[in-house]
Amino acid sequence: MSILTAVITLGLIAGIFGLLLGYASIRFHVEGDPVVDKIDALLPQTQCGQCSFAGCRPYAEAIANGEAPINQCPPGGETTILALADLLGVEAIPLNAEHGEEKPVATVAIIDEQVCIGCTLCIQACPVDAILGAAKQMHTVIEDECTGCELCIPPCPVDCIEMIPLKETLETWKWPLPEHTHTAPKI
Amino acid sequence: MTEQSNRLSTFHGGLKLDGHKTMSLTSPIGKAVIPAKVIIPLHQHIGDTGELLVKEGDKVLKGQPLTLSSSYVSAPVHASTSGTIVKITDHKIPHPSGLSAPCVIIETDGKDEWTEVSPVEDFRQLDATELRNRIRHAGIVGLGGAAFPTAVKLNPGPDQKIDTVIFNGAECEPYITCDDMLMRERADDVISGIQISLYALNTNNGIIAIENNKPEAIGALNQAIKKSNATNIKVISMPTLYPTGGEKQLIKVITGKEVPGNGLPADIGIIVQNVGTMAAIHQAIHFGKPLISRIVTITGKGIKKPQNLETLIGTPMADLIAQCGGYKDDAEHLVMGGPMMGFTLTTDQLPVIKGCNCLLVETSELQKKSRPTMPCIRCGECVRVCPASLLPQQLYWYASSKNFDKVQDYHLFDCIECGCCAQVCPSQIPLVQYYRFAKTEIWNLERERQKSDHARMRHDFRQARLDKEKQEREERLRKKKEMLAKKQQQENAESGEEDPKKAAIEAALARVKAKKEQAGLTPKNTDNLTAGQQKLIEEADKRRNQSKAE
């Protein structure tokens, strides 16, 4: 008799919790994978494919599924690796040199407009629509939109695209980290 | 009337510093000579740059606007004297980076001819919006150093009641005396500007806060108040303690209230304005004159004749130095601003801008005091003096290790960069530089994050566009096929019989099918073959297979 009571009680409890969990999984259902979004938010969004994935989001998905290590993003460099390590609670590892090196300064593409033949290949290659132009018309890069991914360089048949370092402006200028012995500059 | 300082509050920390103010107070405000050319940077304030209104070769008159501000937080710049625009180009501007920015370079004609001005007879006839508009078009920004557009500050919003306006005449930093001289010599202008501000903010409680080391200024202002029978303004004399002139510190001293960490003084019903800005408002409203000049203190132990000069915006600093007798032999550094919060310039070929209150020439004597940096010994002196009640040594620790999350947890952005901590540090650590470094790094990270968000949006948009195009193409193709089929059917129905071409094709197909079926049959009469015949068949099969494979 007593064993029956125990079985019934436990069965009831299991049933109640089952219903609760079932309700919760419908009521609090989250579309997509929030971890992927969080990882994607930390990636630099150059969509350059240097990580060997088709863009930032696919790489984020691969990281979330444990299919790729966090050190395959050269544009993000050390900062991104540290942020990813922090987010995922894993050890930070140095950038994998196979995928490229971190650029010391940000660059943007510039088209030599004298040489451009208007083939539109670079326009098709640009992942962020930062190149303006039409067939047989001169092309130009919208500097503010260019992420410096370099994807436009290989398709160019006349090699008229060059990467130039981004000019430092008053807005982007940063105070340097002080050196150990500080002396003010002389007039 | 001046109130006694015993009812005043105090802020945490602070330092008593040597004033060094008398050296530039010996002569009245002089007038800087009109230079051969003025260099006017288009961006001299916090906010957006206006649109350029002039082009190279244009003749401009004194007070003529050079830019038009279309965004809200912005201020136009004006020609500070008459002449010809010789160039609009990037020129070095006074900024710690030493970088260049777009400037209008005017070759002066020496006539100093004014453009048409529209003075206001009685400002009380205008409403606050109109007054703010005039102040905005006059390009007036806070002259205490931060250069925030004044018209924006005078508009706290409809649901924000301002009950006290504090006029900042503290001038707490050593060496600087431009506000002191202004209050002594032009007290009437200051009071007049204050009346306009109080009217625009719809309040009757104006307080002029001055450190008690400026008795002449306090006297002059009291006299001006008496003369104009102003009952809504009083002068308060405060103890001299650096940095009383800091906005939040000043509010604490005068009202005892504290401004919330990431809030504005307006959140607690207070606005702080510099006294120099008030004199500029007076000029803008009563005379219609835009902000084209300011008083600059040229001082320091390395200059021959320290003094205050009313200087046209855009005057090269070298010209001012020359007018003050030039550098002494032991002059070493040129600093814009005071010794505590100013920054060192690498050249004197820079224009005076709206926010330039002082040019300080330091001698090697000051430099000798600075010994090499030693490790932090955690003495806690910096904590004791910090006027923002922060923990400077923790900020230093996290800033130098680039831990930007942690440094913000310790309220880095409440640091006013007053330099008290670095001043008392026995290890000579340039603490403020670490904070500036961390602040600009954090801003940069934020900018990069915004940029990557923008890139993601554009990438997603492109992807969506490509998908849509593909879908549309497929749809078009499908429709075309459907239409063709329909047309065919219709034609067939019209002619009432099978299309002859189609019939021919079908007949051909039937023939091929029949042939295939024939070929599919197994060859007959293959029993009892001789070895030679078998070999021939095998060779033929092999050939067939080979040609098939090819």
Topology:
The complex is a heterodimer of chains A (187) and B (550).
Chain A: H1 2-27, H2 34-42, H3 56-64, H4 77-88, E1 107-111, H5 121-125, E2 131-132, E3 140-141, E4 161-165
Antiparallel strand pairs in A: 1-4, 2-3
Chain B: E1 30-31, E2 37-41, E3 51-52, E4 59-60, E5 67-68, E6 83-92, E7 100-108, H1 128-137, H2 150-153, E8 164-169, H3 178-185, H4 187-201, E9 206-211, H5 215-227, E10 233-238, H6 247-255, E11 270-274, H7 275-286, E12 293-299, E13 307-312, H8 317-323, E14 331-336, E15 343-345, E16 358-363, H9 364-368, H10 381-385, H11 392-400, H12 404-409, H13 420-424, H14 431-495, H15 500-520, H16 531-549
Parallel strand pairs in B: 1-13, 8-9, 8-11, 9-10, 12-16
Antiparallel strand pairs in B: 2-7, 3-5, 4-6, 6-7, 12-13, 14-15, 14-16
Helix pairs in contact in B: 1-4, 3-5, 4-5, 4-7, 11-14
The CATH level-2 architecture of the largest domain in chain A is identified as Orthogonal Bundle
Number of discrete helical segments of chain A: 5
Biggest beta sheet summary of chain A: 2 strands, antiparallel
- Spatial strand order of the main sheet of chain B: 1-13-12-16-14-15
CATH class of the largest domain in chain A equals Mainly Alpha
Strand content of chain A: 5-15%
| Biggest sheet statistics of chain B | 6 strands, mixed
Cα(first) to Cα(last) distance of chain A is: 99 Å
Based on DSSP secondary structure assignment, what is the total number of beta strands of chain B?
A: 16
Q: How confident is the prediction overall: mean pLDDT of chain A? A: 87
Task: Give the assembly state of these chains.
Answer: heterodimer
Query: What's the shape of chain B?
Result: elongated
Round the Cα radius of gyration of chain A to an integer and report it: 26 Å
Query: Can you tell me the number of structural domains of chain A?
Result: 2
**Secondary-structure class of chain B:** alpha/beta
